[in-house]
Write a structure and sequence with these properties.
mainly alpha; globular
């Protein structure tokens, strides 16, 4: 169980579920060729999950002192697992994840695409060692990597199967993946700021320069509020233009209930939030918005089939 906790298995399951959902609830429902066989796509998911797991391990190694203050009950390195063993796990996960990436890049005859996996592993390492201590930059990197886990589906499954005949349809599907990647980026970016507010005491004691440390919890919360208005407005416009105009009323109701209403709740609540417990609750709300927002791809697909 301690090893599963170390790699944040719930987050990894959510990541894998998201990638499986995009392929089988969305891409497989379209009349298009896909570059990867099912088992090869399984390897793409596995590679993404292994690199993310490695990211969690290296982050925990460098965060022992901070987590001892913020989340003492959740510290695993040095208690259940030695630092040396954790480093070995980190190296093993990275090597396997990147090796699978090399194999898949050669399968689709784009060997240069293997650099994407090396870039992900490198960014996660530099995030843990230095970038997370730079105000906003760390938040941006984490959000960007989540968005990349959506875009990578298009890079490996759509792009290599694109030809002159299906180019317009493939571009349209790729743009939908980018829309979801952008949504994931925005929600996760806000969540990272909220988590920084929640962890401000431990971060301050470690000499880190997060947004709440630089400008205070209250101002950081207002910035998170300001950022939250952007996905709220964009989601509202998106639902109106793509769901309402196409008479996808089930998807519209779903969007209002699981994305817009919780986002509005977040905007109202963060205005008055003060305690660590309240910010933790708001972080959970954003995680649920992200999950149900991604799940909307299944609802939309079913709604289109139901209408037809």
């Amino acid at each position: 169980m301690k090893y599963l906790k170390l790699i944040r298995y719930q987050n990894l399951l959510m990541l894998a579920f998201m990638q499986v959902l995009f392929r089988y609830a969305f891409l497989k429902q379209q009349n298009i060729p896909l570059a990867l066989a099912d088992w090869q796509y399984g390897l793409l998911v596995l590679s993404t999950v292994l690199l993310a797991a490695a990211g969690y391990v290296i982050n925990d190694i460098f965060d022992v002192a901070t987590d001892s203050i913020n989340k003492p009950s959740k510290v695993i390195i040095g208690k259940g697992i030695s630092e040396t063993k954790a480093y070995n796990i980190y190296i093993g996960l990275n090597i396997t994840g990147v090796a699978i990436g090399f194999y898949l890049s050669n399968v689709i005859l784009r060997p240069s695409f293997a650099t994407i996996f090396i870039l992900i592993a490198s960014l996660l390492y530099f995030y843990s060692t230095s970038l997370k201590q730079i105000m906003i930059v760390g938040n941006f990197i984490v959000a960007l990597l989540l968005a990349l886990s959506v875009i990578i589906i298009g890079i490996f499954d759509l792009f290599p199967a694109t030809n002159a005949e299906n180019q317009a349809q493939m571009a349209s599907l790729f743009s939908i993946l980018i829309d979801y990647a952008l949504f994931a980026f925005m929600i996760n970016f806000i969540r990272e700021i909220v988590k920084d507010i929640e962890d401000v005491n431990g971060d301050y004691n470690q000499g880190m320069n997060t947004l709440p440390i630089a400008i205070g919890n209250s101002r950081a919360a207002k910035i998170a509020l300001g950022f939250a208005v952007i996905p709220f407005i964009l989601s509202l416009l998106y639902i109106n233009e793509y769901f309402m105009q196409n008479k996808l009323y089930i998807a519209t109701l779903y969007g209002f209930a699981t994305v817009l209403a919780p986002l509005l709740y977040f905007i109202v609540k963060i205005f008055t939030a003060k305690t660590q417990k309240e910010f933790h609750h708001l972080s959970t709300v954003l995680k649920l918005i992200l999950f149900f927002g991604i799940l909307s791809i299944l609802v939309i697909t079913l709604n289109i089939k139901y209408n037809a």
